[in-house]
Design brief:
The chain has helices at residues 59-66, 114-119, 121-124, 128-150, 189-199, 235-256, 258-263, 268-272, 283-292, 305-312, 367-376, 385-392, 405-413; strands at residues 20-33, 36-42, 47-53, 73-82, 88-99, 154-155, 161-162, 174-177, 180-184, 201-209, 222-231, 280-282, 319-322, 345-350, 355-362, 398-404. By secondary structure, it is α+β, with helices and mostly antiparallel strands. It folds into two domains: 6-99, OB fold (Dihydrolipoamide Acetyltransferase, E2P); 122-420, BirA Bifunctional Protein, domain 2, CATH 3.30.930. The strands form three sheets. An eight-stranded mixed beta sheet has the order 6-10-11-16-15-14-13-12. The protein binds 4-amino-1,4-dioxobutan-2-aminium adenosine-5'-monophosphate and magnesium ion.
Amino acid sequence: METPTQQVYIEDLGKHDGQRVLLRGWLYNLRSSGKLHFLEVRDGTGIVQAVVFAKEVAPELFAAAGKLSQETSIEVEGTVRKHPKEGYEVGVSALRVVAAPTAEYPISPKEHGVAFLMDHRHLWLRSKRQHAILRIRAEIVRAVRDFFDGRGFTLVDAPIFTPSACEGTSNLFEVGYFEDKAYLTQSGQLYMEAAAMALGKVYCFGPTFRAEKSKTRRHLTEFWMVEPEVAYMDLAGDMQLAEDFICFIVQRVLERRRPELAVLERDVSKLENIKAPFPRITYEEALEILKAGGKEVPFGEDFGGDEETVISEKFDRPVLIHRYPRAIKAFYMKTDPTDARLALNVDVIAPEGYGEIIGGGQREDDLAVLEEQIKKHELPREAFEWFLDLRRYGSVPHAGFGLGIERTVSWLCGLHHVRETIPFPRMLERLTP
Ligand code: 4AD
Ligand code: MG
């Protein structure tokens, strides 16, 4: 009895040079020329050219191969050999159709509009570019975990249903909660503050939600955020942690995802530049840069995407902007003890115009000041009683930050819009597929 041929994944073909293998995947593309059919076969790990040569297979098989339509699921048997240019190819000896498409595949190799592709996101994911982006995203997620786990942080999961706002009340998603109402979490931070008082160094990593009415290339309504929080850490320590963290992620992607970056035609020299130390400037120094760049902003106003772009263009690596005006920042931020107009916060702006990827800072640890801020921001005091307990019992200086995964993926991949950074994006006008 013949032994069945071993299934091999395309990314492992190099280990099977000269051997007969079984590929199980889908037809990505087909080209024919006379006595040859070139099947581009994909299996989730990569794409390989499978060559059907009229002289090496039965006439029926040759004829059938020439009629295969895009995205037919197929099993291919053949021999692995070196391709003159692109690694390896497979010389086909047998081919089985698992399922033929019931209609023509909607996404042909020609150009399609974004709306069409977004409507077909469930199929679009199969394309080379989307495949590369999702692999880089997964690598970034793994790097995030490795970084914090490797530094003795404990992963603590924050709740998704919350009773109150963390990042302002204007973009809360309200949901029914039995007889009551709840909000989808905007940030796990307040819970991480509680966890840091119990475990010292903690982080959460999960989806967060904001009812963003703005249609920009940086905003999603559902995005993933990683949020470290550390007891006894101050703003300087927080900035150091953010710098180390970003360097780690960029290095990891450069180490492990070069082929994917190449598919995206990413200029990797820009990423190779990302080395410590990153510039640290104050909000007031940022105002000077904006003024010199012809974009004057008065003290007390926040930066939008345009301002971030002007600032980021001045630097070849991420820039840390610290000490924004206290009045425009969230209630929990610590007031600068040397200048009460300012908060001890930091935003990290990615280079090449990608904008803010991190927001964070030192937290207000004084009970009375925090109570006053809750009042100033007109937040419902009852909902924050538990949070105030953290200042009543063993309050210590502490700090943390949140990094948005999609903006980070967008930057590292060199994408135009965050909608391609998450498998199924949720935006103002998009809830499907
Ligand atoms: O600056 P933000 O609002 O900070 C916080 O939520 C803090 N509570 C985090 C903390 O200190 N633990 O958001 C942090 C990051 C932003 O820098 C950005 O990368 C991302 O989250 N982000 C978004 N990403 C995509 N779409 C949106 N609508 C986003 N809003 C924020
Ligand atoms: Mg922010």
